[in-house]
């Protein structure tokens, strides 16, 4: 702690007397400054104990009062007047003005040199700095030992809370609370979800300070809360929050920064190790998709901790043209892994660059934590879509992958965030085809009929649609159109002539129906 006016006054070697402002002696003294100017404020920064013999001070009450106001407005924490030179005693108007502004006023006796006061304060400041450095080194060593232990991140959070005399909480990259210390702070830490979510949307590293009552806390306690993102490559890997009764001191700030650095290193791990794990997971996923499940199980059992057990789904994420999907796909992979780690759920992830842009494939338990996390991520990122396969056994993952790819194509074409295979299977064939290709096909095939309808009698397009919808039943189709069946027969012969195709051919009927339906989409 920095020296205070009270600690300076208590030094008996200085023989100081408090004449005013006795209720404000706990103010910290940042420096001692000596000045005989009637306005020394241009040379002050605030936090000083100002010493003067009063040579230039005015003699009237108004002048002395103005002098005190200037000092108080400049942030001076105390005024010491040396008697025996300009003044035999401290002027009473000066005492009254200081009492009015709550500015501590000290009488400095003639035998006490100003430099003696400066030395006392300087020594206390030096001791404070030494203590801060010593405490910081001790805290760094303590936190480092904790980080290297068995429960590294948990131990760091607990030691940090004890060092700060408050509470600390660690959140994963998705914003979920993973560690809190002490246990009683779980409710407070849980109510910082909105602030953590705001930081999660900003590049790392970033921080937020919440002074006063922590958001949403329904107690009489007031916390000073600091939330810090943890990450070294702009994407947050986690978040650290601390709460203390008072504002964090510079020494405590050093301790907090040490904890942030250690937790960041722990969460980031070595880039080589992360890349190796990603390559291993991607290789295992491709083996599973290729049907080599037995071999993948053998490899995963020794090196990867096993494969997902039970009914799984394949999820494929991607983005439409013109959308930079690299960062959202990276976040999706991270969030999926974090969700699996929280509940011990196995998953396989692979990134690849396909013909239609980057893709992320995830194999995870049906409706498990990973599955739900992936759905949550695509809802947060504009332009990102997800295709989801039907539930399948691990041995059928190859078929599930094809289903997920088709579902993703439908999602991207329709501008939807997520599409399940069940929706594709129960819907139309048209969404599976490229919109431009279907439109061009329909326009080219039906152009002769549309040109006829613009210049001649008889609505051939509508007649063809009615006849096909009734599966070639003349009477039913003619009734739908309100014409005689012979009229409809004539129109269908005209359709065959214009198109150069026979309506008796099943393939021709299918193509015409597809062309007609594409105009309705």
Distinctive features:
5-stranded mixed β-sheet; 16% strand; elongated; alpha/beta; 5-stranded antiparallel β-sheet; 15 strands; 50% helix; 19 helices; single chain; 521 residues
Can you tell me about this structure?
It comes from Kitasatospora misakiensis. Residues 460-517 form the PucR C-terminal helix-turn-helix domain. Residues 8-124 form the Purine catabolism PurC-like domain. The chain is an alpha/beta fold. 50% of the residues lie in helices and 16% in strands. The chain contains 19 helices and 15 strands. Helix 3 (92-101) links the parallel strand 4 (78-82) and strand 5. The longest helix has 35 residues, at 114-148. The chain starts with a helix and ends with a helix. Residues 213-220 have low confidence and may be disordered.
The termini sit apart by 73 Å
In this structure, how is the largest beta sheet organized?
5 strands, mixed
Helix content: 40-55%
Mean pLDDT over the full residue set: 86
Strand content: 15-25%
Please tally the β strands and state the result: 15
List segments where confidence is low: pLDDT < 50 over at least 5 consecutive residues. Answer: 213-220
Domain Purine catabolism PurC-like: 8-124
InterPro entries: CdaR-like_regulators, PucR_C-HTH_dom, PucR_C-HTH_sf, PucR_dom
Protein name: PucR family transcriptional regulator
Pfam family, one: PucR
């Amino acid at each position: 702690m920095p020296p205070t006016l009270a600690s300076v006054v208590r030094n008996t070697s200085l023989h100081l007397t408090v004449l005013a402002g006795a209720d404000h002696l706990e103010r910290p003294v940042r420096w001692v400054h000596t000045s005989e100017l009637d306005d020394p404020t241009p040379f002050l920064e605030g936090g000083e104990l100002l010493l003067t013999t009063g040579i230039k001070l005015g003699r009237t009450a108004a002048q002395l009062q103005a002098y005190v106001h200037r000092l108080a407005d400049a942030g001076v924490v105390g005024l010491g007047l040396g008697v025996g030179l300009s003044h035999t005693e401290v002027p009473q108007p000066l005492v009254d003005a200081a009492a009015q502004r709550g500015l501590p006023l000290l009488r400095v006796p003639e035998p006490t040199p100003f430099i003696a006061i400066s030395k006392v304060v300087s020594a206390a400041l030096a001791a404070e700095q030494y203590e801060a450095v010593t405490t910081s080194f001790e805290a760094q060593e303590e936190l480092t030992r904790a980080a290297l232990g068995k429960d590294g991140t948990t131990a760091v959070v607990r030691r940090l809370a004890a060092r700060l005399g408050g509470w600390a909480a660690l959140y994963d990259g998705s914003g979920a609370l993973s560690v809190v210390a002490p246990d009683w702070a779980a409710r407070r830490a849980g109510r910082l979800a909105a602030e953590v979510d705001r930081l999660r949307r900003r590049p790392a590293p970033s921080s937020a300070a919440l002074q006063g009552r922590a958001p949403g806390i329904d107690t009489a306690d007031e916390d000073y809360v600091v939330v810090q993102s943890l990450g070294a490559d702009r994407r947050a890997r986690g978040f650290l929050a601390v709460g203390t009764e008072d504002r964090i001191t510079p020494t405590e700030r050093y301790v907090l920064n040490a904890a942030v650095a250690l937790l960041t290193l722990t969460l980031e791990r070595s880039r080589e190790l992360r890349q190796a794990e990603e390559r291993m997971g991607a290789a295992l996923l491709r083996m599973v998709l290729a049907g080599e499940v037995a071999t993948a199980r053998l490899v995963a059992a020794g090196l990867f901790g096993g494969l997902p057990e039970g009914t799984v789904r394949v999820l494929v994420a991607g983005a439409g043209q013109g959308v930079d999907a690299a960062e959202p796909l990276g976040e999706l992979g991270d969030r999926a892994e974090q969700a699996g780690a929280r509940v011990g759920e196995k998953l396989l992830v692979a990134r690849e660059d396909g013909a239609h842009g980057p893709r992320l494939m995830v194999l995870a338990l049906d409706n498990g934590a990973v599955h739900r996390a992936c759905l949550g991520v695509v809802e947060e990122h504009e332009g990102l879509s997800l295709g989801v396969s039907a539930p399948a056994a691990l041995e059928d993952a190859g078929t599930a992958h094809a289903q997920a790819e088709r579902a993703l194509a439908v999602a991207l074409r329709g501008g939807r965030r997520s599409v399940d295979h069940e929706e594709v299977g129960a819907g139309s064939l048209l969404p599976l085809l490229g919109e431009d290709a279907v439109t061009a096909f329909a326009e080219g095939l039906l152009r002769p009929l549309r040109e006829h309808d613009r210049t001649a009698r008889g609505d051939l397009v509508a007649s063809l649609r009615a006849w096909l919808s009734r599966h070639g039943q003349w009477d039913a189709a003619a009734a739908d159109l309100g014409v005689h069946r012979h009229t409809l027969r004539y129109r269908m012969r005209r359709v065959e002539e214009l198109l150069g195709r026979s309506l008796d051919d099943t393939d021709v009927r299918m193509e015409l129906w597809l062309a007609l339906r594409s105009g309705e989409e």
